[in-house]
Amino acid sequence: MTLPAVDAISAMVAPVVLLTMGVLLSNGLLTVYGSVNDRLRDMTRERIDILTGATGEKLELAAVPAMSRERLKEIRAQLPLILRRHRLTRLAVLTIYVAIGVLGLSIVVIAIAVVGHNETAGRVALGLVLAGTVIVLAGIAVAATSLAKSADAITYAVERAESSLGGLADFAMPHGTADKVRV
User: Fold this and answer.
1) Are 22 and 100 in contact (CB under 8 A)?
2) Cα(84)–Cα(156) distance, integer angstroms
3) Across all residues in the chain, what is the average pLDDT?
4) Residue ranges per domain, the chain?
5) Per-residue pLDDT for 162 more than 70?
6) What was the pLDDT predicted at 175?
7) CA–CA separation, 33 vs 90, rounded Å?
8) Short-list 134, 135, 100, CA closest to 22
9) Angle between the 13-50 and 4-11 helix axes, to the nearest 10 degrees?
10) Which residues make Cβ contacts (< 8 Å) with residue 81, sequence separation at least 6?
11) Which carries the bigger pLDDT value, residue 179 or residue 8?
12) In 51-150, which residue ranges form alpha helices assigned H by DSSP?
């Protein structure tokens, strides 16, 4: 005969694994969130720097050099795209945090169900584990959406540079390398 506490620990394994997975996912997403946050701050600072004159005055757009005006257009187009990714990543992290809370609660309810031989608590625990799993999956879906949309800003920057500065075809290729490079 096993002790009720051992049975409770044994019953908690699945939600503990899911909870640990949620923590690992949220940590990875927090790293992404920080990087996106830094990129937003850098681009905002770059915009301010471009529009600030030598003595600190605000420059009119006509006084800004042509290439800097091009960069301002890129920043204006990219900031909303990056901000969207920032919001989606934050939503993914918060969703996974909710899942971690639900899974943590399920562990407590499992202990109550096993130790107290309470069928109702067992059903509640099962519902909490299932809900936590669904919420983790929702967080992963939001994170995947964020990742899928993350290419928009960089694609825009590369395509804009290609169209305004000339494409790769404008650069001479060393002899014998043209057949090795596909554009």
Assistant:
1) yes
2) 15
3) 87
4) 4-163
5) yes
6) 55
7) 7
8) 100
9) 40
10) 149, 152, 153, 156
11) 8
12) 66-116, 119-149
Number of helices (H), then strands (E), in the chain = 5, 0
User: Residue 112 half-sphere exposure, CB side, CA atoms within 13 Å?
Assistant: 14
Token pair recorded at residue 155: 């694609």
d(CA 138, CA 133): 9
Tokens read off for 46: 């770059």
Report the residue count for the chain: 183
- Mind listing the pLDDT tens digit for each residue in 102-132? 999 999 999 999 889 999 999 999 999 999 9
Question: 133: closest CA among 92, 107, 108, 96?
Answer: 96
CA separation for the pair 147, 84 (Å, rounded): 11
Sequence letter at residue 118: N
Tokens of 112: 């109550």
Do 75 and 47 meet the contact criterion of CB atoms below 8 Å apart? yes
